[in-house]
Every structure is written in structure tokens, then in C-alpha cells.
Design brief:
The complex is a heterodimer of chains A (about 425) and B (about 425). With about 425 residues, chain A is α+β, with helices and mostly antiparallel strands. Chain A folds into two domains: about 1-220, Metalloenzyme, LuxS/M16 peptidase-like (Cytochrome Bc1 Complex, Chain A, domain 1); about 245-425, 2-Layer Sandwich (Cytochrome Bc1 Complex, Chain A, domain 1). Helices cover about 40% and strands about 20% of the residues of chain A. Chain A is built from 15 helices and 14 strands. In chain A, the strands form three sheets. Chain A has a seven-stranded mixed beta sheet, with helices on both faces. In chain A, a hairpin with a 4-residue loop joins strand 7 (about 90-95) and strand 8. In chain A, helix 1 packs across helix 7 and helix 3 packs parallel to helix 8. Chain B has about 425 residues and is an alpha+beta fold. Helices cover about 45% and strands about 20% of the residues of chain B. Chain B is built from 15 helices and eleven strands. In chain B, strands 1-2-6-3-5-4 form a six-stranded mixed beta sheet, sandwiched between helices. In chain B, strands 7-11-8-10-9 form a five-stranded mixed beta sheet, with helices on both faces. In chain B, a hairpin with a 4-residue loop joins strand 9 and strand 10. In chain B, helix 1 (about 40-50) packs across helix 4 (about 130-150), helix 9 (about 275-290) crosses helix 15 and helix 12 (about 350-370) runs antiparallel to helix 14 (about 390-400). Chain B starts with 6 loop residues before the first strand and ends in a 7-residue tail after the last strand. The chains are: A alpha+beta (about 425), B alpha+beta (about 425). Chain B: GO terms for molecular function: metal ion binding. Chain A: InterPro entries: Metalloenz_LuxS/M16, MPP/UQCRC_Complex, Pept_M16_N, Peptidase_M16_C. Chain A: GO terms for molecular function: metal ion binding.
Chain lengths: ~425, ~425
């Protein structure tokens, strides 16, 4: 078992890669009442075209299958796994993102039992035709719920305007139609391919004893049989650099219109270090200009083009990346034009040393605040780990960023072909 | 885990609560101002949190204020209003990085407390009125907030449910206020109300983090000292018990894909009540967790919904059920929910389920206490209910809940209102 101490953050991380390929990380935090565990596979909604385990040819599976599989893993032949966690005083949950499916629990007692339950239920699938059919009603309502949410529709509408072929533009849950095509055999194919321990990470943070915990996890894994580790082949379609649509307008029964501006981020990065720096700089620049202390936020706010719902976010992965800026607006066209001008104008801007110091201080504060949360640490650690980055080394990277790096990045960040607009407008007539 | 110790100190015009803890990488300072919910003041109280974030006399624009906070290692400021029973609480929160984790010797907490004090006591004004352009702009922002509630169907259905259920009670008042009031509010009338709020609201200040009681006391005293305040007003008594003659069913149609079925019950039990902890367990068994009757039946057994759950309003004595279903399933879903409530009242749950649910409620409390803002909210319940129960005692009381206690809760719960938001033409399916 490896042990690394991070002095500035006052954290100690234990890790080990087990014989079956599973990567385990343990972060003891004895001052907390809670322990949070997450068992995550490097498999999300975008992994639709791949070679199934033990076969030769690529197949493409229905939209929404990774999410469907996440729902069904909780159901066993004789019981629902939620009840197992309940009996052990834990609350359990799961989520599916573009690139990951993760199963998690949090508890303040019975930690060993809950860790065992988490490992065992994810590694023991039971799918039947009947239970697959039953789930279609539940997920159908989940999809309808999202369809009624203008925030979700505008977020996805923006991604759809940015990406033409890449499956990031497919809704994570799929559609009512696509989930109806899913069979139990499809679920087993995806499960067997992507839930091999060598494609998975286990992270536990909270109140426990690391040596004993590692031993328990090892014994649990050693007692199970898995296929030998083999290379996972996935394929993504060619995606042009430019956006798919300059403008995507969606009609919905809303009282206030929404306008989002999307940036298709560049993903051809030379190294993991560059990846992290550019991700940090993207977030810091958006924050510097578009958060409440930002010059552009103030201008948009005073011109009555935005309100408090205005926000921005960045999501950069290996095969895609985007930023989304916007919110409610009574003048969505004017907002779109102004923000586009602002983004284009960044090429000509230069940050001063003083300005960049404030940006760094803010980022450091945000990072420390996030480190109060076991959920953030666990999720973000796994996210970065899969990209070859160590979360606990992010703080020194922020401290060492220079104003020159920021200005060089800003000069090349946005160009005309990589910007799109998505608007939600009240229905006509 | 660390033991939570709250030290309460009565100061001139406010109460100081200090919770020293090394658990977090940040320090939290929170100010709470409480007054009764009233139709005449609600919109002004909804508007003030927006105004206070727009600048102080030292940092006269929102941008200057936010830049000063950013420079304080990204200190996070939040100001909002909320309903707690029939009281309205304005909360100011400031969270800063703990200096111990930074490569700096700066006194961050001192500056943060000064800043919070000036946001509350010295907002941009000429001593008689706020800045007119700020007030006009923020009225517009609040109006857009009010107008957009209908676009979030779950919040909208919750709001409409309370409109119908509490028509004759102060609790009906909307936390964001009313558009029609905005016309009569200007920079002067709002400033006068602000001064009244400062003078009359009950004020509580919390400091949570790696800081000693003496240091926190010194910092808060010097930053709050020049603000002499009258002694605090009493809490407003919330109406809890209501006579229900018939269950009121309200159906509304809109252009939606998914229908929202919300049910409102009177629990006749609030935070200070001895049965409050049994009510939490009752809610846990009924609809509070994925192991609950609502989740297991509405979702897992009949696959009618993605979510079907319940929660309690601790200071008003309500239990609210909410679910998203297909418009055609109204009757079926309502019958299943009613059946689950009947089973709860009959005590149809096992000893094991009772024990498991108590463990889950305890787990939930402990987890909330791990979160700095969550811990402060739990401690503030004591102020709202005028009780004195420590976090450890709260947990003990949950552990001691018996089957008989849960049955007593069941006897007190009554259905009051059914609210159904459905698609156009959806009500014909009934």
C-alpha cells in the first residue's frame, strides 16, 4: 500500500492497485462523523460504440444505456440494494455522466459492512426481462421531468449546437423511444465490457482505519473471479473543430426566455500538465469576466440583459470540451450578440500582474472550500485520476501559474467558429 | 469525530454563538435576522438581500465589493431570505479560507468580519435613502425571479400547494414577495424599512471554524459595537392547528409533459414538541428515504414515478408529499399514496424498519453536522423554537423513539389539500 502525505492540505492518501486491476484510494479523515465511498467505472453516456469483451467487431448500443444500467444494478433477484444500505444506516445513490458511472454511499456507522455491500452489489449484476420492462416506466418519468425543465433543455440544447457527431450531444438518459429498445442482453454486454475491475476506481474518504480497510477490500476482491485484463476498444466519430449550429432556438412554455452561449473547447492537449493548466485557466478567465466581480457581468447586468440566474460552467474531458455561459434574459438576442463580442474581444486583452494575483487567490479559496466536502474530494479525485492528474497537487499548480501563461492562453482561447448560441423562447401563438 | 460545542453569549442587541472546530478548511460567519411574516413587509424583506449585495459606502458598487471579496482568497458572500414557520429570516453568510492552509500571514478573518459588518450596517446610502438606481435595478431582478417561478414546475407546484392549503395563514406568503408591491417601494421607503429591521429584528451571529471563543467574541464585538440596538422582539407564534372539514382538491392545467401530484398534511407537531423526533421517524418510514413506503410503492412496485417522497416543515407543522407522474396516473398514484398513509397510521411497519429508519435519521443529522452551513442551520432551529437541545441530545432523542410514539404521530396527522398540476386536458382523465 502506498502512502503519500500532502503537507499544505494536511491530508494523507493511501493507494494500491490490486491484482485484478482495481485501483483503490483511501483518505482517512478522523475528524469527520461521515464516511463517503464511491465505486466508479470509466464508462458513461458517450461510450456507445465499442468492441464487446471477447469479441472482434464494434457495435453501437441504444442511447441512454449506461444510465439504464446504473438504475438496474440496484435491483437483485430477491431484493433491492437500497434496502441493504438502509439496514446498515447508510444512504446510497448513483449517477451517470458523459464519461462515468458511479455508485456511492455515505454513512456514519457500519463502514466495513457498507464498503462490502458497495463492492458486492456493483460486481454482481442481475438483469431480467421483467425488471428491465418495469424500469422503462420509471426512467420514462425521469426523462419527462427533465423535458419540462428549461434549464436542462437550454444546457443540452447548447451542447447540441456545439457538437455534430460526438455522442456528448445525446441526452444522458436517452429518449423514451431509445430506452424502449433496451434489452437485458444489451445490459449484460455493456456490463461485462465496462465493469471489469481494471476499468474501475474505488475511493473512500472519512472516518476509518486505512490498513484494516485496505485488507478488507483486498480480501473481498481476491475472493472473486474475473476475466483477465484486456484492452478496451471504444470509438468516437470524427468531430469537426467548428460548431454544429450557430444558433439553436427551442420553443417551450416558459415565461422568461433563456439564452446560453456555448464555446467548443479545444481538446488536443500535449500533456496532462497542460490539460490541468488550461482547464484551470478556462475556469479562472470565465470567472474573472463573468462572475459578480467581473467587468462583463457588471456591464450585462446594468444593461438589463441578465439577472441572478446568470451562470457559467466548463466541462473538459479527453474527447470533448465545452463551456456554457448564460441564463434568463428578457432580450435574448441582444445578450447573445454582446457576449459574443466580449468573447472575441478577449484576444486583445492583457491581464496585469495584480489582476492575475486576485484571480489566483480566488481560485485557491474556492479550492479549499471545496475540500471541506468528502463528495467533492472523492468525485474530483477520480475525475482527475482518469486524466492522469493528482487532485492534491492542484493547489501548487494554481500557485505557480503565471500571468504570461494566462495571457498566452487567453489570446488563443476563443475563435469565431467555436461559438454558438442556444435560446429557449416562449411558444408562439 | 469531533464533539460539537456551541458557546452562546448574550450581547447588547444580539446573541453570539461560537462553535470552535478544527474540522474545516474554512471559517464561517453567519448573521440571522428574524421578524414575523407579514403581508406589508414581505416584499421589502425579499428585496433587501439583493440590495445589500450591491455595495457599501466603502465599496460603492457590486463589482468593487465582489473584487474585495475575491481578493480575500475568494471569500464567499451569500444573502437570502427564508420562511421559518411564520417568521421571516434574512441570512448573511460569509465563508473564508482558514489562514492555516494558505502561504500567507494575512489576517483574513478580521477583514472578513469587518466586511460582513459593513454589508449589513453600512450599505451604500446617503443616511436617508439607498441609491435609487440600485433599488430600481434590483426591483427588476426580483420581478424576474418572481416571474420565473412558474418555469420550475416542482417549485411552482409547492408554492401553489401552500397557497391553497394555508390561504388564511401568514405562512401562505411568498418568500420572494409580490410584483404588485414593487411599484410602491422606492429608495427611501426601503431604507426606512431597513432601519426598522436593524432596530427590531431578532439578531443571531454564528462563528464556526478554527477560532477560539475569546477571539471570535473580540472580533464580533469590535465590528458590531457602534450599532446600538434595542433588545430583540419576541418570536412570532406560528399557527399550527387548523380544523379541516374536507380535503380540498385543486387541479390546474398547463402545457407540461409530466404532471406534479403534491399532497399536504397537518402534523400538528413542531420543532419544540416532544413528539418532533418521532415525527422525523414517521416521515422517514413514510416517504423520507429510498426504503420508505412511498418510494417502494409508487416508484418501485408500480413504476409510476421517478420521484415520490415526503418532507416536513419543522416550524409550521406540515408534511408534504411530492411526486412527478404521467397525467393519466392521477387517481392511481393518489390511491397508492393514501393507502401508504393509512398503513402508517395503523402501524404497519416492522420493528426492523423502525430501527433502520431511526439509524437513517441519525445518519442524516450527523452528515448535516459535518457540513459547516448545515450545522449552523441545525443550531438555529433552537433559536426559532426557543428550545435548548444540543446536537447530541437531538440524536439521543431520535434513538429513543418507540413504535407507540410513531403511532401517536399518526393519530395527529390529517390530510388537508391535494394539488395536481397536469397537462392541458389532463384533468379529463380522472
Amino acid at each position: 500500500m502506498n502512502k503519500i502525505s500532502y503537507d499544505q492540505l494536511k491530508e494523507t492518501l493511501y493507494s494500491e492497485k490490486l491484482a485484478n486491476g482495481l485501483q483503490v484510494f483511501l483518505l482517512p479523515k478522523p475528524e469527520m462523523a461521515k464516511t463517503f465511498g464511491i465505486f466508479s467505472t470509466d464508462y458513461g453516456s458517450i461510450d456507445q460504440t465499442f468492441v464487446p469483451l471477447g469479441e472482434k467487431d464494434f457495435i453501437t448500443v441504444p442511447d441512454g444505456i449506461a444510465h439504464f444500467l446504473e438504475h438496474k444494478l440496484f435491483e437483485k433477484e430477491d431484493r433491492d440494494v437500497f434496502q441493504d444500505f438502509t439496514k446498515q444506516g447508510a444512504s446510497a445513490n448513483a449517477f451517470t455522466s458523459f464519461t462515468k458511472t458511479a455508485y456511492l454511499f455515505s454513512a456514519t456507522s457500519n463502514i466495513k459492512e457498507n464498503v462490502t455491500t458497495l463492492l458486492d452489489f456493483v460486481q454482481d449484476p442481475y438483469f431480467s426481462e421483467q425488471s428491465v420492462e418495469k424500469e422503462k416506466g420509471i426512467i420514462g418519468q425521469e426523462i419527462e421531468m427533465y423535458n419540462d425543465q428549461p434549464d436542462w433543455r437550454s444546457f443540452f440544447g447548447t451542447i447540441q449546437s456545439l457538437y455534430e457527431n460526438h455522442p456528448v450531444q445525446v441526452d444522458i438518459a436517452g429518449t423514451v423511444k431509445s430506452i424502449n429498445e433496451i434489452t437485458k442482453d444489451d445490459l449484460y454486454t455493456c456490463y461485462n465490457t465496462f465493469y471489469h475491475p481494471s476499468n474501475m476506481t474505488f475511493f473512500l474518504a472519512g472516518n476509518f482505519e486505512p490498513e484494516k480497510m485496505m485488507r478488507l477490500i483486498k480480501e473481498n476482491q481476491d475472493a472473486k473471479q474475473f476475466e483477465p485484463v484486456s484492452e478496451l476498444k471504444r470509438r468516437f466519430p470524427e468531430e469537426p473543430d467548428r460548431v454544429a449550429m450557430k444558433k439553436n432556438v427551442i420553443e417551450m412554455p416558459v415565461s422568461v426566455a433563456k439564452c446560453m452561449i456555448g464555446i467548443k473547447e479545444q481538446t488536443d492537449r500535449s500533456s496532462d500538465e497542460t490539460f490541468l493548466k488550461e482547464e484551470l485557466l478556462t475556469e479562472m478567465l470565465l470567472d474573472y469576466y463573468f462572475s459578480k466581480s467581473g467587468e462583463y457581468y457588471q456591464e450585462l447586468y446594468e444593461a438589463d440583459l441578465i439577472d441572478n440566474s446568470f451562470q457559467f460552467e466548463t466541462n473538459i474531458e479527453r474527447s470533448f470540451g465545452f463551456s456554457v455561459i448564460g441564463g434568463n434574459s428578457t432580450k435574448p438576442d441582444e445578450l447573445a450578440e454582446r457576449v459574443k463580442q466580449m468573447l472575441h474581444g478577449l484576444k486583445e486583452k492583457k491581464l496585469t500582474e495584480r489582476e492575475f494575483t486576485t484571480m489566483k487567490r480566488k481560485k485557491i479559496g474556492q479550492f479549499l472550500r471545496a475540500m471541506n466536502s468528502l463528495e467533492f474530494i472523492s468525485n474530483q479525485f477520480i475525475h482527475y485520476h482518469l486524466l492522469g492528474i493528482d487532485l492534491f497537487k492542484v493547489l501548487p499548480v494554481i500557485e505557480e501559474l503565471t500571468v504570461k501563461e494566462a495571457n498566452d492562453f487567453m489570446g488563443n482561447w476563443v475563435d469565431e467558429d467555436r461559438i454558438s448560441v442556444c435560446q429557449i423562447v416562449p411558444e408562439q401563438g | 469525530m469531533d464533539v460539537i460545542e456551541e458557546k452562546r453569549l448574550d450581547k447588547k442587541g444580539y446573541r453570539l454563538h461560537v462553535i470552535p472546530s478544527k474540522k474545516y478548511k474554512t471559517t464561517n460567519v453567519v448573521v440571522k435576522l428574524k421578524a414575523g411574516l407579514e403581508r406589508d413587509t414581505i416584499t421589502k424583506r425579499a428585496l433587501l438581500p439583493y440590495i445589500l449585495q450591491q455595495g457599501t459606502n466603502k465599496y460603492p458598487s457590486a463589482r468593487e465589493l465582489r473584487t474585495a471579496l475575491d481578493d480575500l482568497y475568494g471569500a464567499v458572500l451569500g444573502v437570502d431570505g427564508s420562511k421559518k414557520g411564520e417568521n421571516h429570516v434574512i441570512t448573511l453568510r460569509l465563508e473564508t479560507a482558514n489562514e492555516a492552509y494558505l502561504s500567507t500571514d494575512e489576517q483574513i478573518l478580521e477583514r472578513a468580519v469587518e466586511m460582513l459588518s459593513s454589508i449589513l450596517f453600512d450599505p451604500k446610502s446617503d443616511g436617508n435613502s439607498f441609491d435609487a438606481s440600485i433599488v430600481n435595478r434590483e426591483k427588476q431582478t426580483l420581478k424576474q425571479k418572481i416571474d420565473s417561478i412558474i418555469d420550475d414546475k416542482m417549485s411552482y407546484a409547492n408554492m401553489r400547494m401552500i397557497d391553497e392549503m394555508c390561504k388564511d395563514e401568514a405562512y401562505r406568503l411568498h418568500v420572494h414577495g409580490y410584483t404588485e408591491d414593487l411599484e410602491d417601494i422606492n429608495e427611501e421607503t426601503l431604507y426606512h424599512y431597513y432601519q426598522k429591521m436593524l432596530a427590531e429584528d431578532q439578531m443571531d451571529v454564528y462563528v464556526l471554524g478554527d477560532v477560539s471563543v475569546e477571539k471570535a467574541e473580540g472580533l464580533i464585538e469590535s465590528a458590531f459595537a457602534p450599532k446600538q440596538r434595542a433588545s430583540s422582539a419576541e418570536s412570532k407564534k406560528t399557527i399550527v392547528e387548523q380544523t379541516i372539514e374536507d380535503v380540498n382538491t385543486v387541479v390546474e392545467e398547463q402545457n407540461v409533459q409530466q404532471a406534479k401530484l403534491h399532497l399536504g398534511y397537518r402534523t400538528n407537531i413542531t420543532f419544540g414538541d416532544p413528539l418532533y423526533y418521532a415525527l422525523q421517524v414517521f416521515n422517514g418510514l413514510f416517504g423520507g428515504f429510498p426504503s420508505s413506503k412511498l418510494f417502494m410503492n409508487v416508484r418501485e412496485k408500480h413504476s409510476l414515478a421517478y420521484y415520490a417522497a415526503s418532507r416536513i416543515e419543522s416550524h409550521k407543522g406540515l408534511l408534504l408529499v411530492f411526486s412527478g407522474i404521467a397525467p393519466k396516473d392521477f387517481q392511481k398514484a393518489r390511491d397508492i399514496i393514501n393507502e401508504q398513509m393509512a398503513l402508517m397510521k395503523e402501524g404497519k411497519f416492522t420493528e426492523e424498519e423502525l430501527k433502520d429508519t431511526k439509524d437513517l435519521v441519525v445518519n442524516q443529522l450527523l452528515e448535516t453536522m459535518d457540513h459547516p452551513q448545515g450545522l449552523i442551520e441545525i443550531l438555529y432551529h433552537q433559536v426559532l423554537a426557543e428550545t435548548d437541545v444540543s446536537p447530541d441530545q437531538m440524536i439521543e432523542r431520535v434513538k429513543h423513539v418507540t413504535r407507540e410514539d410513531v403511532l401517536l404521530v399518526g393519530e395527529k396527522i390529517e390530510q388537508d389539500t391535494v394539488y395536481f398540476l397536469t397537462s392541458k386536458g389532463g384533468s379529463r382523465n380522472e
